[in-house]
What we know:
Four copies of one chain form a homotetramer. The first copy, chain A, has helices at residues 19-32, 50-63, 76-82, 114-126, 145-156, 178-187, 216-224, 252-266, 282-290, 303-310, 334-348, 350-354, 371-388, 430-444; strands at 9-12, 39-44, 67-73, 87-91, 100-107, 110-111, 139-141, 167-171, 191-195, 229-233, 240-243, 273-276, 294-297, 314-319, 322-324, 362-368, 393-395, 400-403, 409-414, 420-426. In chain A, helix 5 crosses helix 6 (178-187), helix 8 (252-266) crosses helix 11 (334-348) and helix 13 (371-388) packs across helix 14. The two termini of chain A are 23 Å apart. The model of chain A has no long low-confidence stretch (mean pLDDT 92). Chain A contains 14 helices and 20 strands. Chains in contact: A-B, A-C, A-D, B-C, B-D, C-D.
Amino acid sequence: MGLFGTAGVRGPVRSRLTPDLAVRVGHAVAAELASPELVVAVGRDGRTSGAALLRAVTAGLLAGGASVCELGVVTTPLLAYSARDGVGVMVTASHNPPGDNGLKLFIAGREASGSAEAAVAAAVAEAPAPVRWDRWGSSSAATVRRSYLRAIDRYTTPVGADARGLSVCLDAGTGTGAMTSAPALRAAGAEVVVLNGQVDGHFPARASKPTAATLQTLAAMLRAGSFDLGIAHDGDADRVVFLAPDGEVIHEDTVLAVVASALLETTEIPDPVVVTTPNASRRIDTAVDAAGGRTVRVALGDLQGGLATHGDAVVFAAEPWKHLHPGLGGWIDGTASAVLVTRLIAERGLDALLAPIDELPYRKLSIDCPDARKRPVMAALAAELPELFPAATISTEHGLRVEFADDGWALVRPSGTEPKLRIYAESATVEAVVEPLTETLERLI
Amino acid sequence: MGLFGTAGVRGPVRSRLTPDLAVRVGHAVAAELASPELVVAVGRDGRTSGAALLRAVTAGLLAGGASVCELGVVTTPLLAYSARDGVGVMVTASHNPPGDNGLKLFIAGREASGSAEAAVAAAVAEAPAPVRWDRWGSSSAATVRRSYLRAIDRYTTPVGADARGLSVCLDAGTGTGAMTSAPALRAAGAEVVVLNGQVDGHFPARASKPTAATLQTLAAMLRAGSFDLGIAHDGDADRVVFLAPDGEVIHEDTVLAVVASALLETTEIPDPVVVTTPNASRRIDTAVDAAGGRTVRVALGDLQGGLATHGDAVVFAAEPWKHLHPGLGGWIDGTASAVLVTRLIAERGLDALLAPIDELPYRKLSIDCPDARKRPVMAALAAELPELFPAATISTEHGLRVEFADDGWALVRPSGTEPKLRIYAESATVEAVVEPLTETLERLI
Amino acid sequence: MGLFGTAGVRGPVRSRLTPDLAVRVGHAVAAELASPELVVAVGRDGRTSGAALLRAVTAGLLAGGASVCELGVVTTPLLAYSARDGVGVMVTASHNPPGDNGLKLFIAGREASGSAEAAVAAAVAEAPAPVRWDRWGSSSAATVRRSYLRAIDRYTTPVGADARGLSVCLDAGTGTGAMTSAPALRAAGAEVVVLNGQVDGHFPARASKPTAATLQTLAAMLRAGSFDLGIAHDGDADRVVFLAPDGEVIHEDTVLAVVASALLETTEIPDPVVVTTPNASRRIDTAVDAAGGRTVRVALGDLQGGLATHGDAVVFAAEPWKHLHPGLGGWIDGTASAVLVTRLIAERGLDALLAPIDELPYRKLSIDCPDARKRPVMAALAAELPELFPAATISTEHGLRVEFADDGWALVRPSGTEPKLRIYAESATVEAVVEPLTETLERLI
Amino acid sequence: MGLFGTAGVRGPVRSRLTPDLAVRVGHAVAAELASPELVVAVGRDGRTSGAALLRAVTAGLLAGGASVCELGVVTTPLLAYSARDGVGVMVTASHNPPGDNGLKLFIAGREASGSAEAAVAAAVAEAPAPVRWDRWGSSSAATVRRSYLRAIDRYTTPVGADARGLSVCLDAGTGTGAMTSAPALRAAGAEVVVLNGQVDGHFPARASKPTAATLQTLAAMLRAGSFDLGIAHDGDADRVVFLAPDGEVIHEDTVLAVVASALLETTEIPDPVVVTTPNASRRIDTAVDAAGGRTVRVALGDLQGGLATHGDAVVFAAEPWKHLHPGLGGWIDGTASAVLVTRLIAERGLDALLAPIDELPYRKLSIDCPDARKRPVMAALAAELPELFPAATISTEHGLRVEFADDGWALVRPSGTEPKLRIYAESATVEAVVEPLTETLERLI
């Protein structure tokens, strides 16, 4: 595996993301991405290893000749916002376990592209000597939250309505999300109760990754209280999950469909595009069509590619739980979506908001498959699919995608990080789709 | 009313605790309390006016010639701990509404005495000119949380048992309490879920003062979840309230009795004393007696007086919700009690802990009485009491206190801050005590 | 006298510029100048009272509803640069004694105009209550030196030549000037030795105001060493004074003429204007004429007025020691001029640089005159002047100015701050000008 | 060469003291020296690589499980003072060129001993993995200058007299020395003019190491001005050099003799000891004898060894330019000596102070000698010495030391860092001593 995965450099702090590596990556970023004119913004989430790794990456940046502006403990969107005209490095492992940490690079507010990451990885491998002593960079500090909150406010105000009277329970999970989402939601008018809003890198309250399983306290809270909405972030608040007042997680694809519709309704962009990924469900296409937009699918993890291709036409680019708002900037921003959904509920009520979204039954599962077998198995499956689903349309652009007449679909793709194949399926008769796929794959593997 | 009330200088920030007043108080503290050798520790809770008032009081201190160490946003116990060998000023209105703020003075870790406050008040009235320009003080900064948490750990370890397996819900109410109580409880082994742990001076989640009425979200949370204990602080975490897993507030006097007993059981002080106030119930005396201690009552708000009189013999000094631990230091510390009670429940279970405490029925009420009438009415009541309760013993040391044969008692005292008389009564037949008192007072007024 | 003099609010810290006043001015600035969108930049020079007064003015700003960005110890030009798109408050008494301090307001990088100051003064007099508790401002921090130094570099590079090989002695006088002028001069290529570069508000080394009398150590240093130039700033580095290698102060008007010429030579502005004041000598006009520019005189202390009137045509606006560079921004900037003059010497040598400047003999003196007598005496003098100097041209725009055929001139004006009349005269026969003026005035008074 | 030389880890920042190494050393210090109870104090001088390396060593400390208190830019004595009860790491290359940097370890205020350094070096070689993620340390910050200055004041007050009226020129050489020596000298009453007091890691004004050659600007300044004393520090102010008003460097051994005498005169220690090194001249012994003390010599660089052996009896331990004051703490402190010498001159005048010191003519020179030849040449010289100087006493404890009847002496020792032999000689007829030694050595080599 290369240095950079789908979410930057990431791994356990004892064996992979050590201070040594952070120094080398900082140095490489300085060498490859920073010009003398630029100041690199650096920040971190609240992980126990963050204080050390932030210093290490800063040391590398300075020794590589970059100048650095230290933002301290922030959310990833806040860091990206601060790097909207430059380069940024965020020390976070996002939704990973507390013993992991990572480095995420931003250029002009966007996650670094594969080619930029490759250049940095090459420089890390080279391990160049520090620059001459009189060219080491200097560091400064700044606080940016106020300006970011103003940007969030400007961006979200055209959508939905003032949330006065709405009561939201925000589960920050001892991540950094409360520092932006709590004031942003309050600025939108909502009353906010925060669960574990104190930053604590031990993640003592729940795992960083917000899922139905890890959000049981929030769900209990919602059932016990009289809240209109539950919202949860991961440790660095790029991700966002919504829960209904009954404690049930609102399906991530439904959220995408709702936000996409609302943004399409208020946009002034002609022929607007929504970018999403192959694992995102058909209901998004339906909603986007209804709102007068066009859906474009890009490979999982490549929202930036979609933005690059469709430029100013894109009003929203998202994969499940991760929403990028081009009208705000080129980064994934959980706080922006938290405010948007809250304002939409304030305007329409949750039921009315979800009603138009057509939720076909959905399944998602994984099948063990050694890495070496992935390619031949996928090829064999491609050969068998037409026979398996004679009535369906098959596309091979991003994995193998099968489209059914009833608006249902299925997708099979090899995992990028684990020895598994993933099956996603959505259909009025989802079991009738999943079962033959599973059997075929197990036989082929 | 003088400048200082029972809890320092306090009031609305628009009309009373303005930056002007904070400058003058800072200056007066420098003039009266600070020697050139001393550095005055300053800190604040999270109120919206705190950033300004902290700067104002610091400006006054410096202009008065004191040197200042700035601790930023802290709890009151943390500030007091930092001033354990010197002088401290805490910018907090504790449990007051968000539009109030205040200044609390500490000398050698103890709240300033009346005479020290009088000296400061006199200097404020005088409004002296700043000291000569070359004697203005200098400022430094420090972080103290780590050393404080270590002190809490050392102090609490001998009591109760490791809390591994215990689950606590801590309601910080967007005050500063989570910054010390959450890690301290975790250090004691407990699992902690925090409600509103992010600091927010708007107190958007609940009022700063933790009462049954303001803790409804916590109570709902406790009923919904599977917690062993609920704990709540006010905005600056000197106060502490405990809730049972069913969401009911544990009576503040019962908490006092429990903590007092436990400290007496582990102390090595010969002939140990527990200091409390007249409004604290008989159940404390009973528990203290049983644990081999002696109860001493001082006027409400004068725990320091009790400490001064009984010196090293005091193992615990408390009024309802406010616990001072001489073994830790001379300040009221909600975090220390939070850990102690948690460790006691870990050792014995909540039911076993509360079982020995004898809770007689208790009533507390107020009767309107103009300030000018307070003194004659109290005198008249004193004259009538022997006739009203012929079998009781009457003492006049702190208000009028009546002791009954069944271990019951009643206390009548004029309020120090409102045009009211207060009646407290605890008895197996409490209505039979309160009714004649009320009738008599209403007649006399 | 009003609250604001010619250089903001200024005075002794014990009797005038107390923390109380600073709180009130901060509050008034928030009320009158700050909009909710703006962040007010605040900074201070190194005076012993600066730490307190900076906090006090910040407290007032926050209580008045403004948000604040704290820059710490900076030069006045650095503060003005940071407020180039907003509002700034600098805590400095510039060249005053160490027991004084002051507050200087900047709007859009320019010193606040009289009308803005009047609005603030009116708000100070009103002493409004703080804004509602939930509208008090918030504070952040930032470091700005790097970006400022880059701006200086960009601005100065077109003038003169790289100063490699030049050796400069910079006397910072324990003011803040070394923090920008030392690196800026080094960036220009010069070798720099700094006298009293450590910031110390006691001004133990010399008075803040750089004059021939206070710069004796620097002069001795220049005579002893092998320096090409001496440069001195006042405590906040808006002022600048230059000394020749022999330790002699280069006349402030000559410096103006040199800088004006160089800026005119490199400007691309058509019909460029140089703004100066009536007390600045004729040699400026001569140099400006020769370089193809036009000189405009405004009242002393009113450079901003000249900028307002002549807008984009102004390439330089200066009174003795105080240089405003419109190409950099609307503030007086001693560091910019320090670099410009150094680069000019690098290009041409000091002798060649000064040679074209025609230094007629110059005199400046004061005559005691009670404030009440100023107006009638000036009127009487105006009546007598035509008789006194029959061949001269007389103008009454800014005081009484007499122009002679030999390019000489004289100016009489009442002091704005002291009970004196000032006489300035420059002429080949300067005594023949000053003597009759003095006699006449003494008679009239 | 091992990791640690005579002054910690030191070398060029591009090839040796890189951020990678700093991370590893920080980690090793945490592993070997820090206990969970301890907070490691870290600081740096002003070198351009200091910001990066401080962060790198802090990252290593945290990843190794230590907690860290960051002091920022300080002098080495200030860092050592802050670590007087714990462990400290100073990022400095002291008097080395600007392209070098280094790490100096302190334990209980003393430079780490050889065995502690060996333990750290072993841990660096091992390169252990970071500790478990939940045991990484936390960081805090503090400012310590005020308390240090008070300690200096208390320590120096018993010696000499108030320096009111004395004028001192302090050459900080853009190191950090002005931050403590300037205020300490002023607190002692002296007027202070500072040369290059602004911190600048480029060392643009002079090399960090203060020698007659690098102090020419200071010498010129002294000759030009009317100063009573010149004082110079290296970049981190452990070293100190004194210059007479005529610009001449006062011999470093004379300074030792003067300070030793004065400390002996005021001590209350019975049978007091002065520790010094073999290269320090006879005049020290003479002065110590006269003042009632006893001189003990230890190997160069091993003052700590002398302290360990003679414990509480030591009143002063010094090698040329580096003075350790046991009454203040176990570190080398240039500021303390700066104040002491100034107070002595205030009391007695420079001439009277130096008069008793018997300065025999002194020579110090080096002879090239390959490392491999050092040992045989020294052995051969030892064999020939009795013949060369028949009347002298010869000792072999630290190199070869020859003592003459006229109080003169000579020392030959191999350099620890260069391929050279060093000859030191002091005698009324110094050439008659040096010449035969040189000839013999050149022949033997």
